[in-house]
Specification:
2 domains; Alpha-Beta Plaits
């Protein structure tokens, strides 16, 4: 066989091997990405899930112990969501939860960690102290956006400055989530009149 032909055939073979290798790597990377998404994202809203949130907080707490970095937890619980499921059905309720997730993504920064804890509970990790007036403004915009369903939310904020860093990371995570949750619940009880007088038609 002519030497030039042999070289061309060999080059064609190498090109084919390279294409198949690139395709395999692309397929492998896509599989890894999808597996990662399933592991750390909420299947409905595509926000982060509780497992990822706690893992992120664990790393943040270690950094805070070392560098005295300040962060805050914003705990959000929807007001008046149950009647939506009762009146419109769970499929509509799921759609609204997706819209709520999109709203939160728009109102917070790309590097803020937003997670769905389950049901109609959400949590935002802010690596700086947030002005409460800003949260009130976000709630006003939220109520306008979801006025058709008379939907609002109660919230609680916990600051890393309030934590006991002599504890291990897992207990610190429990403490800060509990603190934010308790403050959210207290606000929800204070806003119970709002929920009663704002029922979906």
């Amino acid at each position: 066989m002519n030497k030039d032909i042999q070289i061309k055939l060999l080059q064609a073979l190498l090109d084919e091997i390279t294409k198949r290798y690139d395709y395999f790597i692309q397929l492998q990377n896509e599989t890894i990405r999808k597996t990662y998404e399933i592991a750390v994202k909420d299947h409905l809203t595509k926000l982060y899930n509780r497992m990822y949130l706690e893992d992120y907080l664990r790393r943040l707490i270690k950094m805070s112990k070392r560098d005295k970095a300040v962060f805050q937890i914003l705990f959000i619980d929807l007001d008046n969501f149950k009647p939506i499921n009762d009146i419109y059905g769970h499929e509509k309720g799921d759609q609204i939860l997706k819209e709520v997730a999109d709203f939160l993504r728009q109102k917070f920064r790309d590097y803020d960690i937003i997670a769905r804890l389950g049901g109609d509970e959400f949590c935002v990790v802010l690596e700086e102290e947030i002005d409460q007036d800003r949260i009130e403004k976000i709630r006003e915009e939220f109520e306008k956006t979801f006025s058709q369903y008379n939907l609002s939310f109660s919230y609680g904020i916990a600051n890393s400055k309030e934590l006991d860093y002599s504890k291990d990371e897992d207990n610190i995570i429990k403490d800060i989530l509990k603190l934010a949750d308790e403050r959210m619940y207290k606000q929800k009880m204070q806003r119970k009149g709002w929920s009663f007088f704002h029922q979906p038609n």
